[in-house]
Amino acid sequence: MSALTDLTIAGARAALEKRECSARELAEAHIAAAEAARHLNAFVAETFDLALGQADASDKRLAAGEGGLLEGMPLAIKDLYCTKGVHSAACSHILDGFKPPYESTVTANLWREGAVMLGKANMDEFAMGSANVTSYYGNVINPWQREGDNKPLVPGGSSGGSAAAVAARIALAATGTDTGGSIRQPAAFCGLVGLKPTYGRCSRWGIIAFASSLDQAGPLTRSVEDAALMLQVMASYDAKDSTSVDVPVPDYAAALSGEVKGLRVGVPAEYRLDGMPEEIEALWRQGIDWYRDAGAEIVDISLPHTKYSLPTYYIVAPAECSSNLARYDGVRYGLREEDSDLTQMYERTRAKGFGAEVQRRIMIGTYVLSAGYYDAYYLKAQKLRTLIARDFQQAWEKVDVVLTPTAPSAAFAIGEKMDDPIAMYLNDVFTVPASMAGLPGISVPAGLSAEGLPLGLQLIGQPFDEARMLNAARFMEIAADFTARPAGASGGAA
Amino acid sequence: MSDYRIEGQTGDWEVVIGLEIHAQVISNAKLFSSAPTAFGAAANTQVSLVDAAMPGMLPVINGECVRQAVRTGLALGAEINLYSVFDRKNYFYPDLPPGYQISQFSQPIVGAGKVEIDLESGETVEIGVTRLHLEMDAGKSIHDMRPDATFVDLNRSGVALMEIVSEPDIRSPEEAGAYVRKIRSIVRYIGSCDGNMEEGSLRCDVNVSVRKPGEPLGTRCEIKNVNSVRFVMKALEYESERQVEILEDGGEIAQEPRLFDANQGVTRPMRSKEEAHDYRYFPDPDLLPLKLDADWVEELRVALPELPDAKKHRFMDEFGLGADDAGVLISEKETAEYFEQVAAGRDAKLAANWVTGELFGALNTAGLEISASPVSAEKLGGLVDRVADKTLSRRIAKEVFEIMFESGQDADAIIEERGLKQVSDSGAIDAVVDQIIADNPNKVAEYKGGKDKLIGWFVGQMMKASQGKANPQMANEAMKKKLDG
Contact A415/A486 with Cβ under 8 angstroms? Predict the structure, then answer.
């Protein structure tokens, strides 16, 4: 058996079942790895005592033959999830000291199936960012490094702490959230599987809102099977979330045959961008070949409104966030900068509590919703959003899944792209369209860049068709046979 | 159409009024949370995580509030929109925890309707209802507990309100008052709002402008949060005069929110928290559009109770009441029910007289609502029975009523206990007649000499002798017969 921190969820479950290790040992191994990897800054709150308590409880249940689907699995939980009595601050200064008296639906689902919480994962403040450089708690460092270069790289974002933790083998898996690519892009940057489910598949209740019409919870894992197992537990219909959809949760892992013969794989012309690195193009072609060679049908498709996705996203998401973040006003919880004047108190609290990127998006959002601009920006963006979704609806008449690159580059160094918000926003150019259409997407590590960094390919699926998308991903996982591991990963046999 | 006019130095001015009524929905819980809504609970004891806008909390529409809004729309004869949308109205204030109010802006749940109002003159006027939409209430800021701090009570935060917007069809304070009373009557009839203006369950924003008859609409002012019918009328009287004075002095009306100061009887500009709000309305992404089933709406329509106007016409047709009496009796659902109980199987006009006369008078004096009447409908019916069967004269019946009102006893017990039965025994009456004629020979002579009017004096003597118990009609007849005979 390999090191406990090198196991997948599926492997760890088997090890627990065969009594090769205990849940406590599994937790202890991950805690030790996390302590050794603190320089990555993956956790903003460690909950190791809680984890050991949960692991002991898991061992008891396992001994009684009552283990849940994720019994004893040590996870990192993105700081955006409200976890009862535990630091939940969206990595923002404005939520200083906030410990919610409630548990998010998704994490409650995880604990019910026996999962163990190692800590709260670092992230871009309020999930706004693509490099995990906007967190109040500091940057996260990607455990991967360029060959022959030890410059610290970004893990991607916003779920950067989650991705770094799983890649560095300090958590078996992690929860993330994805608004425009915040699971898939860091998964690609860190050599992981990252799954954004269909909008409405996982409850948003208890997850701190960024852009309500786009936010979705999902897992970051080291295998497609693990992603299936995590989604199995995270997904549920929740009457407390009006946008949650009441469709049965299938057995995702059971559908993973890896068989793609006859699968219709769409390749959208519009995802071929000017100036896209050749290695990204080459990887994409490689992916297409894998499917073709396995008997899948490759279909060239057009998603004509793709080019409007990013600009539209940067109207809709800021508009919603400008309203969603109004509740952080210093009145009831979190930071308050006292002032005898109410308006001054608001202004000082929010100026100090929100970082530059959050302030930028609040201002953009406020602007596009303002009288006189609403029709030109917000309303037009909504219309375009409908057209983007229609592109995909028409594509589904011809194809079962769509194959694209996940991100236009590999991970970049901390400090790069920092002074140009637009360059940063371009990170999400391939992930945002599926978000705008509410569709499921998954990033699978498919190869390495010339510098030895992981690159991902994305599959986009039909609504609530995660099972077929996961199976297509499983095929790609086998074909790519991605075995590289980051230099910064802890322990284990290489 | 009302001919209410403000007389100015340059001629007559017409007043144009539109009302926005905020009616708190009677429901088990708040509009988007399960917190209770009872009035008067200790501060911040009826607040859910959603109402306090904790991070990650989401609104879920309360079906009961939707049902009540649809029923109210149906009762206003309005169009029900099977597709409606909740929007966010964004502004900062400490008693608005999310930083936005969830309301309905461009696509409300209820569209155009109308109500009829009855005026003193007997005229009936139709007032258009523009729309009705659902929205959540804010909490309450309390500024007077400490000089250096404001406190916030979130009990009201998230409570469901129906905003009922009228067309600018109202032309006088009287019409405005009648309109508010009519809306209140309708929502109370169907139980969608308790209509209690003192507790703030029903509040009005009053829009008013003035113009020379036939000219285009003038600039309006909005008088916010007026909480009684009387104040609505007073505020309008003041505000329309104020506007006329400004205009006649060559000034312009500033379009601004104002408040009515009930003590001084004047309106004043609101201290504006922020000059011009841009509410940045947009559809709430946490809530899906509200889609209603046409069959369900139809079921609600069929199940609506009888509404005030229908009841009025039925009272007129079924009980032969005049429009005045019928109008008074139907204005409150409780009154109408009370009356129907008294009238059941009895002379309805007699019943109406007792309800609108003695009962209303006594309740008014005692400051009681009809629901708290010490005389139940059943007991008042018992009294009416004794009047109808001539056991009691009208005068004695009034005395019995007063005793009933004090003691809560029923009529028969009082009559029995105090021996108040009207004497209708002709033998007994004849004996008293003989006695009075025998005792007053001079008056008898005068009467016979042609002073017919003295008959009243004779009957009065009879009533006195019988302590009021003699049946006045029989006494009159018997006396006349004896004197003339």
Answer: no
